[in-house]
Amino acid sequence: MNIEKLFDMQRGLDRYIEEGHDLAGKNLFDQKVLALLVEIGELANETRCFKFWSTKGPSERSVILEEFVDGVHFILSLGIMGGFDQAKPSFEAGNVDQAQQFILVMESVHAFHKEKIKSNYEQLMNRYFELGDLLGFSPDEVEAAYIAKNEVNYERQKSGY
Ligand SMILES: O=c1ccn([C@H]2C[C@H](O)[C@@H](COP(=O)(O)OP(=O)(O)OP(=O)(O)O)O2)c(=O)[nH]1
């Protein structure tokens, strides 16, 4: 995965969205942190990994991957805002299950929100990409899905979404 390229694409999209909504220069940190938490919740819902009370299976892989890369967008965006866009993720998950990894990711979001420092950002990025590994996505698949969704995001902005 070419993470520098994804940071560049994210920078362009963020600028485009902010200019289009007259938000240039506005501090959107809290909104982006909440957006990321919501995306993580939506992702967990699609995997159904915590629904021990149900026999229904997860959503289609492509649906889960698209939710996953929505979160990638907000993680990159937060890294750009904080000046941490040199970060490089690790991809290998530890010995935890999906539900545990979701909780680790959410804890990292809160830690980064409390203290906007490089080590907290790196932990968040690593844990999120490790979650992708646990969900069965390769770095190249994540990159391709990110690029596709980035394009969709431009189209949605252009169509007044
Ligand atoms: O400053 C921003 C704001 C948004 N996005 C992207 C991230 C994500 O890929 C998408 C927002 O998520 P989604 O497509 O789920 O939008 P929604 O408004 O929640 O969609 P829906 O109404 O379909 O649930 O916009 C950015 O990259 N930068």
UniProtKB/TrEMBL annotation:
Naturally occurring in which organism (per UniProt): Domibacillus mangrovi
Pfam family, one: dUTPase_2
Protein name stated in the entry: dUTPase
